[in-house]
Amino acid sequence: MKLALKSVIGAMLLNVSFNSFAVSDPELSQSHSILSKQLELTSSQIEKLDSLKSEAEKNLESIDVSSVSDEEIAKSFETGKWNEGGIKQELDSIGKVQNQARYFRLLYLFRASQVLTPEQKKKFDTLLKQHELY
Questions:
Q1: Alpha-helical regions (H) of the chain
Q2: Residues 43, 99: contact at Cβ < 8 Å?
Q3: Are 101 and 61 within 8 A, CB to CB?
Q4: Which residues make Cβ contacts (< 8 Å) with residue 67, sequence separation at least 6?
C-alpha cells in the first residue's frame, strides 16, 4: 500500500513539474495551434510564429530542473512523518521551475501579438481570455 501511494504521489509530482518543460510543451503547442487556426494569419505571420515557438521551446528546454525532487514528499508518506522544511523546499523548487516555464510561454504570446494586425490583435485578446492562454 505504501509503495502504491508513493508511486502515485511521485508520478503526480513529476508529471506536474516536468510536463512544463518537454520539448513539445503542451501549453505552448495549444496556444500556438489556437493562434494559427483562428487568427487568419498570412504565410509570413505563420512563419514568424513558428520561429517564435521554436525559440520558446529552446528556452523551455534550457530550464534547469535538476533541483526538482519529490524525495522528501515521498519519504513523508512512506514513514508517516511530516518534514515541513523539506517538503516546502521541494514545493518551492517545483514552483520556481513552473514560474520560469510560464514566463517563457507568456513571452511567446507577447511576441506573437507583436506580429498581428490591429484586427487580429482584437481577436487575439478575446482568445487569450476565452482559452486562458496566459
A1: 2-19, 26-38, 43-61, 71-79, 84-113, 118-131
A2: no
A3: no
A4: 93, 96, 97
Instruction: Name residue, grid cell 525559440.
Output: 55
pLDDT in tens, 68-119: 888 888 888 899 999 899 889 999 999 999 999 999 999 999 999 999 999 9
Residue indicated by cell numbers 510561454: 105
Please check whether residue 125 is in contact with residue 117, taking contact to mean a CB–CB distance below 8 angstroms.
Answer: no
Query: Which residue from 78, 71, 69, 72 is spatially nearest to 4, judged by alpha carbons?
Result: 78
pLDDT in tens, 25-59: 788 888 888 888 888 889 999 999 999 999 999 99
What phi and psi values does residue 12 have, to the nearest 5 degrees? -65, -45
Residue listed under C-alpha cell 513552473 = 98
Q: Which residue has the cell 496566459?
A: 134
